[in-house]
Amino acid sequence: MRRNLLTSAFAIAVGAAHAQTPAPKFDAISIRPDTSGQANLIVGPIMLGRFTASSITVDHLIRLAYDVQEYEIVGAPSWTKSAVFDITAKADGMEKATYRDMQPLLQSLLADRFRLVLHHETRDLPLYELVASKGGSKLLPAKEGSCSAFDPKNPPPPQPGNALPRICGASWVRKNSLQIVGSSMPGLASNLAGLLGRPVVDKTGLTGEFDIDLEFAADDAIAIGGSASSAADFSRPSIFSALQEQLGLKLESSKGPDDVMVVDHVEQPGEN
Questions:
Q1: Which of 21, 76, 123, 245 is 20 to 30 Å from 146 by CA-CA measure?
Q2: What pTM did the predictor assign?
């Protein structure tokens, strides 16, 4: 029965592809298993129509291609989170392409080289609602003009002393800290979802942009953190306590519908 369903899903996907405009594709692709043993994920910036990644898993590639979180991918075999690949892909005529421009090409790469077949479903998932604490928000509004919107086709000029430009919404996520420049509340919720491995819905009612500087323990409940790695971590509050103490915000457990991507089929590619 499962085989019949898979065959039908693949036939529908192929039929739809023939009926529509051909999906955009990279002109040259190199995919090789990463045998370095380092497993340090590096995704290069989208430049001159080129996509590069080292030690990337298929799970992470799906997240990039479809702009989803890890918890929104279900049904994939375990190797999609463990096997790592080095990928270089080039698209002619896309020298000024942005990350969004590249996503359809990454989707085609997954379909052609990894034989990925998937479909969308709406499922009820555990989630967090981000709300203001009883004492009120402690957020600091970003100063007007302190950051600028990023336009990849017109990047900001070099900064004095090679300092990084302040781009609105730019975030730095580490095992025990989160910094965001000029963040909206939905932007904060999205970053928290990535940390906690669960959807976070903004229910604060707060508008505007804020500079976020949050420090917390590297707790094993945090998706990217793993278990606490040093004694110093125990001197910091959990991320739940840190949100209340430092930002005047609170996470409340709830449940609600979310769009997930169900993997029907995926294969490891042959080396090229």
A1: 245
A2: 0.67
Q: Is it the case that residue 61 has pLDDT exceeding 50?
A: yes
**Gap between the Cα atoms of 153 and 99, Å rounded:** 11
> Which backbone phi and psi does 50 adopt, to 5 degrees?
-120, 140
How far, in Å, CA of 123 to CA of 250, rounded?
A: 25
For residues 19-47, average pLDDT = 83
With beta carbons less than 8 A apart as the criterion, state whether 268 and 79 touch: yes
Quickly tell me which residue has 């918890």 as its tokens.
71
Q: How far is CA 147 from CA 139, 151, 211, in A?
A: 17, 13, 10
Rounded-to-integer distance, Cα 181 and Cα 213, Å: 9
Any idea what the Cα angle at residue 181 is, between residues 95 and 54, rounded to 5°?
45
Query: What is the predicted pLDDT for the residue at 168?
Result: 74
- pLDDT computed for residue 220 by the predictor: 45
DSSP class of 23: P
What percent of the chain clears pLDDT 70, i.e. is strictly above it? 77
Angle at 253 between CA 248 and CA 239, to 5 degrees: 45
Helices (H), the chain: 2-19, 58-66, 99-113, 185-196, 239-242
Q: Strand pairing partners for 42?
A: 54
The pLDDT assigned to 240 comes to 93
**CA–CA dist 165, 263 (Å, integer):** 39
Do 78 and 84 touch, CB atoms closer than 8 A? no
